[in-house]
Amino acid sequence: xTELLENSDELDGEAIASAWADRFTEGLRAxxxxxxxxxxxxxxxxxxxxxxxLHSRQGVAVLDQQLARARGxxxxxxxxxxxxxxxxxxxxxxxxxxxxxxxxxxxGRGQGLVRLVQSDGLWRAVSLFTTLEELRxxxxxxxxxxxxxxSVDGRTWHARRAAEHDLADGEPDVLIVGAGHSxxxxxxxxxxxxxxxxxxDQNPRVGDNWRRRYESLVLHDPVHYDEMPFFPYPQTWxxxxxxxxxxxxxxxxxxxxxxxxxxxxxxxxxxxxxxxxRVTLQSVAGDGSESGRTVAxxxxxxxxxxxxxxxxxxxxxxxxxxxxxxSSGYRGGGFGGKHVVVVGTGNSGHDVAQDLVEHGDRxxxxxxxxxxxxxxxxxxEVMMGASYSDTSPPTAISDYxxxxxxxxxxxxxxxxxxxxxxxxxxxxxxxxxxxxxxxxLSRGDDGTGSxxxxxxxxxxxxxxxxxxxxxxxxxxxxxxxxxxxxxxxSDVVLSDGSRVTADAxxxxxxFGGMENTARxxxxxxxxxxxxxxxxxxxxxxxxxxWRRTEQPGFWxxxxxxxxxxxxxxxxxxxxGQDHLAARN
Length: 584
Description:
There is one protein chain. By secondary structure, this protein is α/β, with parallel strands linked by helices. The strands form six sheets. Strands 1, 2, 3, 4, 5, 6 and 7 form a seven-stranded mixed β-sheet that branches. Strands 10-9-8-14-27 form a five-stranded parallel β-sheet, with helices on one face. Strand 1 and strand 2 (54-58) form a beta hairpin. The longest helix is centred in the C-terminal third of the chain and has 23 residues, at 561-583. It is globular.
């Protein structure tokens, strides 16, 4: 593929991009010159390199201000350079030149991607993406810089690891609350930088957050998108991993990456004292005995998932004769041939409904409003096939290309709309069947499918891994356009006045998000100080996650496996920046 890209340069794209890079270098040094570098409505997305945060800014006047603020950050020159296993310049249509850039800043090594068009006789950027990739004083000990494994202090590997795990050598630099995929991936980045992360998790084993869920659960994204940092899956790994397999992989990952995890451990109390935290932890041993310990990290990261851990359980008037529970409390296996009402039609609602019918229960789903539904095959073949498959570019390249377009840009919106339309064509038969069954369908916000729903509110869609067929063939009944108004005995009373007689109710009504989890663990004051978490800000960046909050030393990590892999790198680098600032 690299050879094809290198030989498709009819415009001499490398010379065009190199000339622009020289002009961009001068603009950064002078702190001005955006009109000659960017088209009028251009976007510049920057992750830490020149803004110290995650920003997407548009318009030549705004970008001129950004150049002024970036003055003095660049060391040397911006250059066109090919990333590993790829080409420096990508083939383009309609005279577009797309090129990878490299540069150094006062903090470390940077990378960029620019898209250029010819405008008024001058090549200008329609979009620019710049990122800080590595800190000079805390480089990643990976690849050619990996450790050699020999003892440097006379201790065996086992003795060193035992001391690290028990904090015998000192306090952790970072305490990560939550040892799921996001917490573990972030810890791997931090440890590779030479920092000392400690993870805690309320479960007895790493991976139990997957193992303890309902039996039918599988990952909804294909394996190629779900890699963890530094550690790709075996080539025999299934496309959609079952939950137990994913749980075991996370446990293996923690061991292989030498991550220190204290399981069966929760936060009892936390306060900021000077430039460090004082966090009291409570651990439960296998025999049930409890012990407490106080640690003093400089940073605390909440990594308990985008949805959070606080269930949103609606207060329904009346009394119901049978069991009612939130979907987080459903462990699978059904109710023994009963009639179950499932409230909610997102991923969890569908997964629970599928598990119920496959264990012999009858199910009625309550759908308040339209839901975006896309098949897993459409996601894998249409949406992700070119970027995340056995024949796609390396994962790091696909991650970078995907992140290079600002979330709110017209190009990103058009791309999502086109992909959503193509997937709808792929799923035409599926959608006809759901429509005939009375299931209300959506195309997502402005026809952009699941991505904007995920980034905006973390839900509102279903990636079909098997439940839709039960709706289409009538095994699962659907009541659409209604909500639950009350309980009366064995009846679930709906907003249109009708009733559904049932033996049990499962409320797949979501969670309160990371902000409410922070409030539950760390208190109202901290949650209030941090501000909104998740959803897009005015620039199209995710609020509060992977970036500094208003509370010094407190951070949020989250996202699906792909987002966590990509953005936790920049969270680790931001923590590293603050660590160096405090040290120096």
